[in-house]
């Protein structure tokens, strides 16, 4: 609870990816990952937002590509992870569209079947579904 007895509630979130070319990232996410562009700004485009099923990713142009350091290069696994339904169908969809599969699908000991893909700037997107 916050002040004045008004309950606060987080509504949604969006990962923020630094990219070399937001227009190229939008094309990749639309063509390969099934997202659609919700917003873009600038000429050339400096910022864009893409979404799929109400989940968004933001892209921001950075002047120096060396500043783009995906989590994987820092010892992490993903830059974003999506919990989904229909994991096998999603894997087939993305693979058929030419997505670079980083790993999987694999059933993890923690009860998730997951796989990951790499985007055009090196960011890794993980997808997982609870094993039933």
CATH fold name of the largest domain? Signal recognition particle alu RNA binding heterodimer, srp9/1
Proportion of β residues?
35-45%
Name of the top-level CATH class of the largest domain:
Alpha Beta
CATH 2nd-level architecture of the largest domain: 2-Layer Sandwich
DSSP, total strands: 8
Unreliable stretches covering 5 or more consecutive residues: none
- Could you give the distance between the termini? 35 Å
* Physical arrangement of strands within the biggest beta sheet: 1-4-3-2
Provide mean pLDDT, rounded: 94
- Counting helices, strands and paired strands, the structural category is alpha/beta
Query: Can you count the helices?
Result: 2
Helix content: 10-25%
Shape: globular
- The oligomeric state of the chains shown is single chain
**Overall number of domains:** 2
Q: What is the string of helix and strand elements?
A: EHEEEEHEEE
Largest sheet: 4 strands, mixed
Radius of gyration: 16 Å
Give a concise summary.
By secondary structure, the chain is α/β, with parallel strands linked by helices. The chain is built from two helices and eight strands; from the N terminus they run βαββββαβββ.
Can you put this structure into words, describing what you see?
With 132 residues, the protein is an alpha/beta fold. It folds into 2 domains: 10-63, Signal recognition particle alu RNA binding heterodimer, srp9/1; 70-132, Signal recognition particle alu RNA binding heterodimer, srp9/1 (2-Layer Sandwich), CATH 3.30.720. Helix content is 15%, strand content 37%. It has 2 helices and 8 strands; from the N terminus they run βαββββαβββ. It has helices at residues 22-31, 87-96; strands at 16-19, 36-41, 47-52, 55-61, 80-83, 100-107, 112-118, 124-130. A 4-stranded mixed sheet has the order 1-4-3-2, covered by helices on one side. It has a 4-stranded mixed sheet with strand order 5-8-7-6, covered by helices on one side. Strand 6 and strand 7 form a beta hairpin. The longest helix is centred in the first third of the chain and has 10 residues, at 22-31. The N and C termini lie far apart (35 Å). The model has no long low-confidence stretch (mean pLDDT 94).
């Amino acid at each position: 609870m916050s002040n004045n007895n008004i309950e606060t509630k987080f509504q949604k979130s969006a990962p923020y990816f630094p990219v070399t070319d937001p227009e190229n990232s939008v094309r990749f996410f639309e063509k390969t990952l099934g997202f659609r562009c919700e917003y873009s700004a600038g000429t050339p485009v400096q910022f864009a937002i893409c979404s799929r099923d109400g989940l968004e990713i933001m892209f921001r142009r950075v002047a120096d590509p060396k500043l783009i350091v995906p989590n994987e290069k820092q010892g992490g696994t993903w830059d974003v992870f999506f919990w989904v339904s229909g994991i096998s169908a999603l894997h087939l969809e993305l693979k058929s569209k030419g997505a670079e599969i980083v790993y999987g699908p694999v059933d993890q000991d923690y009860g998730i079947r997951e796989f990951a893909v790499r985007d055009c700037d090196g960011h890794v997107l993980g997808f997982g579904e609870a094993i039933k």
